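User: Before I run my own analysis I want an independent prediction to cross-check against. Here's the chain; please return only the structure tokens and, at the end, one sentence I can use as a sanity check.
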Amino acid sequence: MIFIFLLLTAVALLYAYLKWNFSFWERKGFPFAAANIPFGALDAVRRNKRSFGMAIYDMYVATREPFVGIYLTLRPALLVRDAQLAHDMLVKDFASFHDRGVYVDEVHDPLSANLFSLEGSRWKTTRMKLTPSFTSGKLKGMFPTAEASADKMLAYLNNKLSNSSSVEIDMKSLTASYAIDIIASTIFGLDVDSFTDPNNEFRQISKEVNQPTAKNILRGTTSFLYPGLEKIFNRLGSSIDGLERMRDLVHRTIALREKNNLIRHDLMQLLLQLRNTGKISNDDGIWSTETTAESLKTMTKDNIAAHLFLFFVAGYETSASTAAFTLYELMQNPDVLAKLREDINQTLEKHNGQLTYDCIQDMKYLELCVMETTRKYPALPLLNRMCTRDYPLPNSKLVVEKGTQIIISLVGMHRDEEYFPQPLSYQPERFTDEHRNYTPAAYMPFGVGPRQCIAARMGKMNVKIAVTKILTNFNIETRLEKREIDFTVNGIPLLPKGGVPVKLTKKAQCGTA
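Assistant: Structure tokens:
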């Protein structure tokens, strides 16, 4: 009898707590979305119907309010729909939203202390030190290494295609191998070929990290929504799949370079320069580093591993998806494909047929295509920030309290006809001065403000190399019937369901698009 009484009491208290928790926005006077207790906006994720990013997109399209209170399981969050308000939070009012509010524990878990997760002054100092890694001069120095990875992709395609018939290629699978190789080479300084050796160590680590296992899903959720719980997991010794192997790989590479004084034009080299000298040289021609005593080094090997792991996770999926989606849209838009081929041919002729960093930068229509792809398919479909001090909402009596999670649905905003007319139509010209028909504040595929993606230019360079190499060596078989890509229910990024099929044929004469 006592057990039944205690059980009923516990159930009643839980019910009361849930009702109180899920009335947060109503009690604060904010417009709010009806919540399915206890998963809130993520109930469709729980039912395996939507990915995290698309579940937030559903919340976006369900209302026309400039902002709306939602629940990410038990955690209240404010979904900001108004483009100018979102832009102001990330730029003009950055001081009130300078952290992401995700898991980080630099003292006990140094691998968590990457540029994405770090907070406050620690983030600001690290960002300032890493910024010289991505100047035009540094990217120009990395370009030959990146191009070599693209040439491995071409060798694979040439072996797969005969001289006459067309072959359907899953562009997502192709560009994923390319992205693995280019990240391994330009970031980690490793020479791998995932086309001839798909089971190489770097690829194996990538599979461990990206597999939608129950453990990976749980740890991803706690890192994003419940940092305190993730801290407990780490204190108990539970590591994230693949992370320890990545750490070991970085430690081995650093030891090899420092012992033999090896110099490569990649991000690893620049972080070693920072480790040994306290800064990354502003002279784009200097890649060497001085070896100092361990006690004098300004970064530990784990610090370097943390940043490299972030650039791997952030760069792999974004580069692969953006390149694949661009080629898919070119297949469905012959007029755009023709303009891009002309742009590539004219630019190559201007640069004496040599594909260089400056040549890629001169391809203006290619830049428009990449902009339109990242508009329609933002690699990360949402942005998040933590309110770091009370923030009065403009033209309102409402106040966002310190500690509130802020969510911005990029896929929602980028596909909103209020900001981008005919949002599902692939129109690179919408970004030109003469045809501009979009709201600039709503376009933020790499974020905006001080915390925008530090490696955005590097990612775009890698995408442009892949697209240019394919168009100058192969023909794309176009089609007039347009089909929208469906997305899987896994992860946060927009992952295509069933791949990205594009038919290719060999060109009679390579070197021109």
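Sanity check: The longest helix spans residues 301-332.
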